[in-house]
Amino acid sequence: MGKHSSPESATFWRSALIVGASRLGVVLLILLVALGFWRLVIRRDEPEPPPEEIPGEESGSLPGIDLPPDTSPTPPAAGQGRIQVLNGSGVAQKLSGAEAKLEQAGYEVVARANTSRPYPATTVFFQPGSQEGADAVVTLLGVGVVQPAPDSLDESIPIAVVIGADYPG
After folding, report:
1. How far apart (Å, rounded) are the C-alpha atoms in residues 90 and 106?
2. Under 8 Å between Cβ of 123 and 62
3. Model pTM?
4. pLDDT tens, residue by residue, 1-41
5. Is 85 helix (H, G, I), strand (E, B) or coil?
6. Out of 1, 32, 42, 88, which could bridge 119 as a Cys pair, Cβ 3.0 to 4.6 Å?
C-alpha cells in the first residue's frame, strides 16, 4: 500500500477531507440546479399569489360614496391641505392631471409615487380627523371613494389620493 493509505497519517486525513469536500460541492451544485429548474419550469404554471389587500377593500371593488348634491364640501383655501398622490392607474398623464387640479385648488402635494398594484377606482384615504377633507378631494376630482388610511401610509400626511383607472385625467 501507498503512504496515503494509513489512517494514522495526517496526509490520509487531508486527502479524505479534500475528496469529501469536493463530493459535497458536487451534490450542492446538483441540488441548486434542480431547484432552479423546478422554480423556472415546474412552478411557472402556478398562479401568482394575490396582491396584499388594503383594509376595507372587498373583491376588488370599492363602495362609492353618496353625497347630497347641495351639501358638497368645498376644498380648503390655498396652502391649507397637505396631500400625497399615488398613481394606481398606470398612466402618468392621469397622475399629472390630478396633481395639477389639486395644486390649483390649494393643496400642497408633498409626496408622489406609483402603487404596487393597479386600482380600478380612484380612492382617497384619510387619517383620523381628515374625512371631511377626503370628501372634498372626491368632490374636486369628480370621482372616487373614501376609505380610512391603512397603517402603511404616512400618518403625517392627512390625505392620500390613489388615482385609479376610472379617473378621466
Report:
1. 25
2. yes
3. 0.53
4. 455 467 777 777 788 778 887 888 788 888 878 777 666 66
5. strand
6. 88
CA-CA distance, 122 to 168, in Å (whole number)?
Answer: 10
Contact 88, 119 (CB under 8 A): yes
Q: List Cβ<8 Å contacts ≥24 apart for 130-137.
A: 130/158, 130/159, 132/73, 133/76, 133/81, 133/158, 133/159, 134/159, 135/65, 135/67, 135/73, 136/73, 136/74, 136/75, 136/76, 137/75, 137/83, 137/102, 137/107, 137/161
How is 99-135 classified by DSSP, letter by letter? HHHHHHTTEEEEEEEE-SS--SS-EEEE-TT-HHHHH
Grid cell digits, residue 115: 402603487
**Cell, residue 129:** 380627523
